[in-house]
Amino acid sequence: MKLKVEIAGISGAEERNVRAVLSIVRAEGEPGLTLARLRQLDRRAPGEIETALEPFGFYRPAVVGALRQEKGTWIAHYTIAPGPAIRVRKVDIQITGEGADAPIFRKAVADFPLHQGDTLLHLPYEAWKLAVLTAASDSGYLKAAFDTTALDIDRTESLGDILVRFSTGPRFRFGPVTFNQSVLDSSFLATRIPFHTGRPFQQQQLLQLQQNLGEDPYFNMVEVIPHPDRAVNLEVPIEVDLSARKPQAYEAGLGFATDNGPRARLTTTFRRINRKGHYAEAEIIGSLNEQSISTRYNSPAFGHPTGVLTLLAGYAILNPAGISTSRTFLIGPRLARRRFGWRETILLNYQRESFGVGVDSGVAKMLLAGANYERTRSNSRIYATKGIRTRVDVQGAAKSLLSNVSFLQLHASAKAIKAVGPQLRLILRAEGGRVLTSEFRALPPTARFFAGGDQSVRGYQYLSLGDQDSLGNVIGGRSIVTGSVEADYRFISRFALALFFDAGNAMDRFTLSDLRQGAGAGIRWISPVGLIRVDGAFALSLPNHPIRLHVSLGPDL
């Protein structure tokens, strides 16, 4: 028997909910449907329609139903007149218990979504109750509960009263933390705990504990389990289940970008040097512009729950696009940690760099002191529709402190992404920096600013923008200013088209007339290995506006 259900008189969310509740709708594809079963479902329909409309404030709908047969198909037709919506007449909310005067509960009462004269909608009412229970649990009121939640409906007057009685119960506190693992000392793991025993229980702190342990290289599974049922004197014991990774890891990778050409990387990680959480890394990188080897010895929890003290040593040969050459040896410590929502890195390195930039050459010996702060907030690591990345760097050296050149370098950059509609993104990027020194020509290329390339001003060769020497060689600049405006349209699930305009330069002194401009279009592929960008960009500031291809791989932020 074929069946079709027709609904008239309502639409939108009301109709969708009625169809979701009606048993006769679910029977449309039911095999072996009999006439007796159909009539039974039809008799139930008015009551089900009334139930389905109550969440929207309609408690007195008029339903006219009819069953008829047309060309072998039974038609169940329902014409619905929702009637007057129930209006809120009175709201009575009372909170009792230890936390009755706590700010979170005072705010909950103030944020109640229904007021006198409003339509009595169930969805915001139920969402509010869930939010109150969640806030209570997150703040340590683990036995909080609603004693009464009542809707008193006067169907004749189309009015309703809301009565809520909520008890917070006592506020629980953090108890002892137990780590279930056998590879590291518990005293070291305790440095990852962001709270103290006896402090008020907060779910957010448990998530922070999980994040602290998850960022470390030791474990591939971290599960933080509170046990309020085992609380003693309101102190909740915390159990942390940890699954250790393999002691060693080896990783090889291949890549390509037009800035550096083909690139190969080999990394080795020794995750557990000892039970105190020390670990080491070694990396080899090879590309047309860079050949380097580096080692890092890491000592975690140095003065901070998320801190890592790293002893770094490395050697690199850099020859970026023929613009400059350098051979650099570097050694020294750096401390990385989270601070105020930022990732902070403080460094003190000794760097010896023999270099050539145009007609400039020499050997720079520098005891570099510096710091950088970086923060990224994004709704996706691969293809963000909302997010911002900000970075600030400062570093310098002084002749009076084991250096043969003095300078101070300041640099800041930001990139923001905002969705404009369901398929269109707007991407803004800005960068600025300045080197303060009286001996710029004695600085190595790593301490100068250059512009141009995939992540700078497209349409120009990598690091090809900057001041020039007497022979016309690019030697970089004391200042850098770059910016970009880009829009991309995601026309199918994994592909997007992009239009962009870039401008900027590296120069001795900032002037608008020295900014170089590039513009073009490209395609974005959200591939299994990450976001791949292919751009064609015109160098608008060069004669005949030559076009350059740019290819890069990696997240937007």
Task: Tell me what you see in this structure.
With 557 residues, the chain is mostly beta strands. It folds into four domains: 2-81, membrane protein fhac (Ubiquitin-like (UB roll)), CATH 3.10.20; 87-167, membrane protein fhac (Ubiquitin-like (UB roll), Roll), CATH 3.10.20; 173-244, membrane protein fhac (Ubiquitin-like (UB roll), Roll); 248-553, Porin (Beta Barrel). The protein has helices at 12-21, 23-26, 35-53, 103-110, 122-138, 186-189, 203-215; strands spanning 2-8, 62-70, 73-81, 87-96, 145-154, 159-167, 173-180, 219-226, 235-244, 248-257, 261-270, 279-287, 290-300, 308-318, 324-339, 342-357, 360-378, 386-397, 407-419, 424-436, 467-468, 474-476, 479-492, 495-507, 516-527, 530-539, 547-553. Strands 10-11-12-13-14-15-16-17-18-19-20-23-24-25-26-27 form a 16-stranded antiparallel sheet, with no helix packed on it. A three-stranded mixed sheet has the order 1-3-2, with helices on one face. It has a three-stranded mixed sheet with strand order 4-6-5, with no helix packed on it. It is extended, with a radius of gyration of 33 Å. The model has no long low-confidence stretch (mean pLDDT 94).
Sequence of strands across the biggest β-sheet: 10-11-12-13-14-15-16-17-18-19-20-23-24-25-26-27
C-alpha end-to-end distance: 57 Å
- Average pLDDT: 94
**Number of folding domains?**
4
| Name of the CATH architecture of the largest domain | Beta Barrel
CATH topology of the largest domain: Porin
Low-confidence regions: none
